[in-house]
Write the structure tokens for this entry.
Amino acid sequence: MASTYRSPRRAVAWGGALAASALLLTACGASTPEEGADGEPATVTMWARASTASQSQLLVDAFNAEHETQIDLTVVPTDNYLQKVGVAAGADELPCVLASDVVYMPNFVRQNLFLDVTDRVEALEFADALVPGHMDLGTEDGVIYSVPHTIGMSAIFQNDVLLERAGIDPSAELGSLRELADNAAAVAALGPEFSGLYYTGNNAGSISFTHFPAIWASGGEALSEDGTESLLSSDESVEVFEIFNEMFVSGATPDSVRNESGATRNDVFATGNVGYVLASNSVLEAVAENEALTIGVQGIPGVDGGVSTYVGGDVVGISSSCDTPDAAWEFLEWTLGEEAQVDVFAQNNILSVRTDLADNEFSAEDPRVVRLGELLADGRTPKALNYGQTFNDPNGPALTAFREALFGSDARAALEASDDAINSSLAN
Amino acid sequence: MSARTRRGAANTAFYATAVPLAILFLAPLVWSGFTSVYGSRATGGEPGFGVDNYLRLVEYGAGLETYVVNSVIVAVVAVVGTLVVSVLGGYAFSRFSFPGKNLLFLGALAILMVPHPTILIPIYQMLRTFGLQNSLIGVGLVVVMFQLPFGLFMMRNAFDGLPRELEEAALIDGLSRFGALRRVLLRGVTPAMVTVGMFAFIASWNEFLTPLLFLTNGDSFTLPVALVSLRSGEFGAIDLGALQAGIVVAAVPCLLIFILLQRHYVRGFTAGAVRG
Amino acid sequence: MPSSTAAPERSTTDRARARRRREATAGWLYALPSAVIIVILFLVPLGLAFWMSLNDWPLIGRPEFNAPDNYAAIGQNQLFLDSVGFTLKYTVVTTVIYLVIGLALALLVQNARPGVGFFRTAFLLPSAVGLASASLLFYALYNNDYGPLGDIFGFFGLPVPDFLGTPDNAFASTVVMVTWRFAGFNMIILLTGLQAIPVEVYEAARADGANWWQILRQITLPLLKPTIALILVLTITGSILAFEPFYVLTAGGPSNSTVTMVITMFREAFSLYDLGSAAAIAMVLLVALVAINALQLALFRDRDTAGRRRFFGRRAAITEEERR
């Protein structure tokens, strides 16, 4: 076995040795190692995906300003994060600190990308206050591999201005998915340029992010507990998809939702012509208010009531390629501390990853952030080894199923027909 | 008289066809340039003209100039490397017979027939052997490899198009073989070299996957990687203003080179491909 | 050399042999940089990719020899099997379109006229835009909430198409994009072919009273055969390996209707982290392309050897571009 393992790499080394003389000149391009020697301040490399990197950058800047250890953050294009991590992992070239979309964590743990940080985490006095969904996905067989980094949670964002024009009280809480559908229809009735409900309908990762909470709030499940089986054809799930399907058919949800892969979602909401949008809390940062748009927040309700949210975002861990785990942990521990969570995150209207710090001097200033913080308590993060290839991959089996259920003629039939494909993707 | 009318009618027909077609071909580029400076993202407020999209670009990450410098380094390695390797190789293929020539030829051809994404992973492991895994030079060399089939064939055909008497005369004048190549033949294959160099530049300037996968440090990213990072938000949300500015910044150098060198590369094709 | 003094009549052959050896050495020296690049950056990695295709190759940890499992799995990979038909359809359509539009443009701009240089440049300029940039540009154009196309259709009283929303529309929209991107490049290749046809041939035909259509059918097209053959091979190789247009513009959608073979390979490698399966698909593609190209070479070989060379010279150009 050992010889099968070594031989390809040895073959490469041989080929390399043969040609080395010809490429001597290129040696000047070699990278320099980044770790400091004894006593010198260490430079710790870190990767984050572009869509959450602005938050990572705030933490890194604040940390670097007051520590000897320096964090060198590299921002990787979001859609290419998997590719980059895969290639680097295969070559043992991962950065010391690796942030990851939380849903990929079970797979990354299985691929041995992260070091065990169980003892370090358990030594934290606030260990119990770390967002439970994130902790769950970064833990396997009782071993902890990551800590929460940033929160991306799903919610309904509404244009208060438009709701008032449609005769809806924007401050009233949505009681149910059916009420959302009625209100959306009322907004759409204002005129052809107005849309009742908008969401990202051509992106499976996004649909599970915004639609699973409605299933949970209805008392159902989207996946089995071990993450190997789809429960999307269960009654609770089917009912949720049927309501969204009705909204699409009736025109409360515009046709363009079918093509929305996420690229223009924020721009569409920013026009002020949309009553409700299903999205993540990043909308509050990304979309500017104006006289036609005042943004309010609602939880995602179930068919007849209840409320839930999908707690996504990023976790962060120490990679298996890291030579300076102590320096890396110094940073990670600091990012979870009160200074980072309150003075850096909360002050910038960013949600804390600690439940004990959800209420703080800054969050109180924005009732929408307070509301998101409350919703977090009802949040869930689904755990499945093959979540990414099933629900995030644009060519995975979920997207076809979701689109057929949301925009086709029969939601139940579509979800039932796709069970096999989704189950086999989750299982293998 | 009738010939002139006929020519006049032909001209009218020509312009009536060519003008709308030219508009169709140029419109997407013009629109991209326009939307990069117009809209609410361009002003950061009410829709209008503004340069905010470009300012975001300039200030992004390590700063636009870092990425431009990195891209230029890759482009220089790619263009110089492609030219040196394919001029020498094209000369060898055109003027010498040596064992393994056909095999080498087939090896170069096969480069075209392998999907890049798969081959990049083993190439990365090869580059590691040389300590080139996180280096702009390594990325440049990979572009040289991908450009090699085109370069070799263009240069070989260009040398084929030059009369052998040219270098025989130079040899009689006492120049060495290499001297003849350098001082006499190069002038004859300049158009083909311009073509090869230009396509190497365009390929390296636009290359995305290789620098993305091979460069581990954000400060050494090239322009396309930075541009893709800049416009990406959660679940595929795109900053469309930044996108347009990025397309413009990526395209303008290539467009300029195309326009400036047009005469040469049209001749390069003719000299290299047709006469050969 | 001792032999030259020993047998004078053999010395000429020896000298010839020595000269040939010197020639071969010199040839190898000039070809050495190419050989180094091809061997180190291509053939050795290709060999490694082949080895990967014989193994279960995880990201971290031990590869395990499992041949021919990765190859057998291709037959079970429904996404890949579906992509074969789509890729072939795309290849046939683009080949015909590139040829017809490229030839039409080349005929349009072949004669010297005031401003003809401007038009040539105008048609060629899209080729300077990277394929990924071009895909993004059209992604924005096709977005009816953002791009102007919807408004333009509306202005003319036409129904606004859902450009990327249905399988047929997404396919057509992508073909329009790649045509925009590559038509000028094909035009310039055909233009060089046209300009190589001696003016006297046309003059003689015209003197015989041939009309425009007869000249095209009986003179231009036959003499363009090598160039046309070249474009055929170029487009076929490039289209079978098509990746970016569909990866960026349609993401293989809607509902996996525009997934090409290389997209499925990319997914195996970078989404499923199954390098063995991805390498196996790449090997199958390589063999198929070598076979297709060998067949085309055989078909055109007897016609014109010089044409064959031309053919090579330009094949490189397009596929390189096509791939990017």
